Amino acid sequence: MKTRLPEHGPLETPRFWRTLEERIETPEAQQAAHDEFLPGAIPPSFNMGPDYNDVHGLPPQSGVSRRDFLGLVSAAAALAATVACDRKGQGTVVPYTKRPVEVIPGVANYYASAHQEGRRVYPVLVKTREGRPIHLTGNDEHPGVKGKTSPRTMADVLRLYDPDRLRAPKASGRVVSWAEAEGHLHAALTGAKAAGKPVLLISGAVASPSRKALLADLKTALPTLEHLAYEPAAGDAVEVAALASFGQAVDLQPRLAKAKVILSLGADFLNGEDPEALGAWGAKRRLKSAQESINRLWVLEGPLTLTGTNADERVPVSPSRLGAMAFALAKELAGKGVALPAGTDLSGVSTGAPAEIPQATWASLVKDLKAAGRQAVVLCGAQMPAEVHQAAHLLNAMLGSEAVAAIPAEPLATVKELETAVQGMAAGRFAAVLFWDVNPAYTFPQAAAWKDAVAKVPVRAWIGQVEDETAAQCQLLLPENHWLESWGDFSTPSAAVLQQPTIGTLYDTRQGEDVLLDVLKALGAAVPDGYHAYLQARWKKELPFGTSFEQALHDGLVKGEAKASAPSFKGASVAAAAKRAAASRAEGLELVLFPGFATHDGRHANNSWLQETPDPISKMTWDNPVAVSVQDAKALGIEEGDLVNLSLDGITLKLPAVIQPGQAQGVLALALGYGRTTGGVAKGMGVNAFPLVGLEPASTHVRSGARLAKAGGKKTLSRTQSHHRMEGRDLVRSLTMDEFAHDPQGHHHRPELVTLYEEQRFPDHKWGMVIDLAACVGCSACMVACQSENNVATVGPEQVARGREMHWIRIDRYYEGELENPKVVHQPMLCQHCDNAPCENVCPVNATNHSAEGLNQMAYNRCVGTRYCANNCPYKVRRFNFLEYTAFKTEPETLVYNPEVTVRPRGIMEKCSFCVQRINDGKIRAKGEGRAILDGEITTACMAGCPSDAIVFGDLKDPKSKVSQLVAATRAYRVLEELGVKPAITYLADLKNPALEGGHHEA
Amino acid sequence: MADDTRKPMFNRLAALVAGPFLLGREAVSLAFRPDKDGPPETPPKLTPSRITVTPPEHAIKRRG
Fold first, then answer.
1. Is A315 helix (H, G, I), strand (E, B) or coil?
2. What is the mean pLDDT of residues A787-799?
3. CATH code where residue A268 lies
4. Which pLDDT score is estimated for A36?
């Protein structure tokens, strides 16, 4: 159904736009708006002529004779009868003969545990059903993360059930016993020890005190051990700058709750990785009135990042110029009386506003930072060159920023150190090499040199989960537990965190630490049996009085501030960095290599949930096209999806291009972690960008001198940003603080709604939701949480390209303003659970109907798949199972399913249910305890997963509930309210706090 | 009214007899090709269709 446009009609040029085509109103965009659905999402006979390849397989309606029709009906009846008699897939439900003590059938268990990605630690709460971990959220007891976690952590439960996991040890390609595999390893290591030959161990970052102690024990037992902790996506420049500025490795942790002014130098701290930062950001943005204080975010960056999309003021700048600008800022502040740290020499830095920034913007930035003083913070992106990090350290030291903590950390190896190791291996220096949870054969920039060098090490062992590029170069493969099957501990600034297994090992695997303990035993050291005992012994010595190990496991942590003192800033390091920054100029195009939102450094590439979650900016799935600025695309004649050759240092990659509004001219951006050659899901998705990573640690991920040329041909992009378009209607609202203070409803007037229907009554509850667009950063955590909770299927890149993705909640990303530097608003869009739902009226079999509590609900086994409801939904939030996405899955993949939610087969319509299973769980719990449901007790998966608390769910019949109070807020509006469908979701308009136009509001 | 398109009786009878005969001959001549590699000496170890889920040892649950 085409809904009627509001009275003002579509604007000549839409104020908000989502795609370039929409912005410049190409004929294709106008046609797409007219067609409502993508071509793949409608039967061909409607608009494309006959296509017998369609899944329906039916001939077009015109020209069907009565005989054909009767024949088909008879065949269909016969087939239906045959299918109905099919007894395939029937299972047997049997009770436990010996029920495990912890498991009560039908009741979920929750365990506290923790997960590590690079240096970042995620304390989590793991939901298990009948012994299977099925859903992750943050640990609510942790004072930092407060029950929130990252999208990748939530999706990592799927990796536990990855069918590609190695299930038993292998030696030279043969499945062997652990005793035999470890026998080979122990013989090699004891031999190396006796001969005094070095052994190389390469692992990921060490964030665990017990793992650190274990490695120290190993070093004592095997003095020739050389250990490198390598994180290929971390950015070596961070290490280089920390060493120069503080004399040691540090982990910088933003404390945004204390920040009034934030300056980001290419830092993407709102990208979903840091739940603590997102929580603090959301708290500062969820304003009830314009009188409350709000922070201000300044962003200077090359590529458009998620943080950049949330900026109040954003200036596109090449990364190579960021350092010079930041040092100029320091000099400007020093000129205005902000004290420089001892020994700082800025004499070589030129004064005044850099050419890249308008004078007024520069003056405003300087004024903001100076006024905020200790409540200002400067954050630098991990990929930025070392001198930009050093400038950020200097600015924070000058301001005395309270909003960032420099915490001493274990050093990471740079690519230079890895290169030295390669030379050592090639020279035959090492007797053995052990890779533990790393994949340097894929991530090291010079893969060919790596392969040749590794082949010269006599014994090569690998500890990991899925056989990867590195495993292919090793003789001994030692399969490792998933972290949900493992023990461990981590230190975080506000608590010591414990990791405990939440399921017994699924296969014949061991955790890496157990392998190392066995090595220690073989080398003659006296160590406990197993890492659990090792960990327990260490913890029992350090636990505070009155706290038991069991209590710590129950909570998942022991609270307490870390005792490490903050390192002091070395002013003497500044002069050289400022000189380098002043000289830094990009020749040719500048390439920024950043960790993929879904894949990170490639470790998550085999996770289909993440691959299908659209990149928050480009909305790409399953691929990593190179992002080109609007200006460069125009100059080079590149269009969306064009195949291009990206060349740098003699390496050429052929890949598709996307045109990215807001990206600085002369800058290219490319995600790492794609182009894997192993893994059932990962293999062949995108291109591997690691060969373009530099070998100069000061700037490994920002490279100048890149060249781009059209390669001829196009690639169909599996991109979701143009799906489900809504024709330029008033869907998303954004206010400046001035507008919020004086005219929050603006020109938007609440339409007078006339209805033919009786007012609906809800006797007990009326469930509703409020989404605050000012707090939503667009990180997609809600999408992953929903996917995990509701068994949402993944469909693959070809189906996504046809508009058939199945996500129940999506994030619409709207641009506003100029192509070169647009403002951006993110809007989560899900079923609005309308009281007068247009989908319900048109369902011929009453499969979708309204509950007595206001839920728009689906009876899956009643649905016959007419898709009338999807046609009639003005929000385009209904998803149809065009193909069979689930029935052919077997264990272990099916073990991740939530048993409370029906797994939908082909031909069924589905959509958001407001997590009805959680509502019923809350109701049953409350009834069992003889009390009313408490406000906030029932959370939907998206609400629980949202790190900035932008989503609030509750009972609208309870006037005291949080959701009821927010519905009455001045920023509140409902999407497409003029249709009279009475949606149960209220949005709160986005807020921007610009320093210049109309933004007199102090930060 | 006679149907002009109907074929002569002889043709229809011939088709009625020849059809099953030809089909039957085709069916009888069907030969099942032997596997290229022949049957393996020992049957490959099948992946178990069910994976045993065991509770974690020593872990302490928060609630449930």
1. strand
2. 97
3. 3.40.228.10
4. 67
Shared domain for A421 and A440, answered yes or no, is: yes
pLDDT tens for each residue of A714-763:
999 999 976 556 566 778 999 999 999 988 777 676 777 887 878 889 99
Q: Are A863 and A847 in contact (CB under 8 A)?
A: yes
Beta carbons of A698 and A416 less than 8 angstroms apart? no
The domain of B40 spans 7-57
Q: What is the CATH number of the domain that holds A214?
A: 3.40.50.740
Q: Who among B57, B58, B61 is closest to A109 (CB)?
A: B61
Q: Which chain A residues touch B58 with a CB distance below 8 Å?
A: 500, 532
CATH number at residue A856: 3.30.70.20
Do A324 and A217 share a domain, yes or no? no
How confident is the model at residue A52, as a pLDDT?
A: 44
- Residue numbers of the domain that contains A289: 253-403
Question: Quick one: tokens of A268?
Answer: 């993407």
Q: How far is B29 from chain A (nearest CA, A)?
A: 30
| The dihedral sign for the CA sequence A895, A898, A901, A905 | negative
A491 and A374 assigned to the same domain: no
Cβ within 8 Å, pair A503-B51: no
Which residues of A are less than 8 Å from B61 in CB distance?
Answer: 102, 109-111, 554
A-B Cβ pairs (cutoff 8 Å, strict): 70
Are A786 and A701 within one domain? no
Considering the domain architecture, whether residues A436 and A535 belong to the same structural domain is answered as yes
The pLDDT tens digits of the residues spanning A441-479 come to 999 999 999 999 999 999 999 999 999 999 999 999 999
Asked if residue A257 and residue A191 are part of one domain, the reply reads: no
Determine, yes or no, domain membership for A795.
yes
| A927 plus A792 within the same structural domain | yes
Q: Do A100 and B63 touch (CB under 8 A)?
A: no
Sign of CA dihedral A79, A82, A85, A91: negative
CA dist., res. A472 & res. A453, Å (int): 14
**Positive or negative CA dihedral for A857, A862, A867, A869?**
negative
A518 and A595 in a single domain? The answer is: no
pLDDT tens-digit series, residues A941-1000: 999 999 999 999 999 999 999 999 999 999 999 999 989 999 999 999 999 999 965 454
Q: What is the pLDDT of residue A3?
A: 35
Share of chain A above pLDDT 90, in %: 83
Task: Yes or no: say if A980 and A754 are a contact pair by the CB < 8 Å rule.
Answer: yes
Total domains present in chain A:
5
Sheet architecture: strand order including A170-171: A174-175, A170-171, A476-479, A459-464, A432-436, A199-203, A225-229
Split into its structural domains, chain B has a count of 1
A896 vs B contacts (CB less than 8 Å): none
Q: How much is the pLDDT for A50? A: 47
Interface mutation target, options B45, B50, B57, B60, chain A, most CBs of A under 10 Å: B60
pTM, full prediction: 0.89
For β-strands A626-629 and A651-660, DSSP reports them as parallel
Name the phi and psi angles at A573, rounded to 5: -75, -10
Residues 6 or more apart whose Cβ sits within 8 Å of residue A294: A284, A285, A287, A737, A991, A993, A1001, A1003
Six-digit token string for A162: 């990855």
Within-domain flag for B35: yes
Contacts with A718 (C-beta within 8 Å, 6 or more apart), sequence order: A620, A621, A622, A623, A797, A798, A800, A801
Among B46, B62, B63, pick the best mutation site for testing chain A contact (most A Cβ within 10 A): B62
pLDDT digits (tens, 9 = 90+) for A504-533: 999 999 999 999 999 999 999 999 999 999
| Residue finishing a domain among A683, A714, A745 | A714
Flag the least confident range among A80-94, A129-143, A401-415, B49-63: A80-94
Q: Average pLDDT, whole number, for chain A?
A: 92
The pLDDT tens digits of the residues spanning A903-935 come to: 999 999 999 999 999 999 999 999 999 999 999
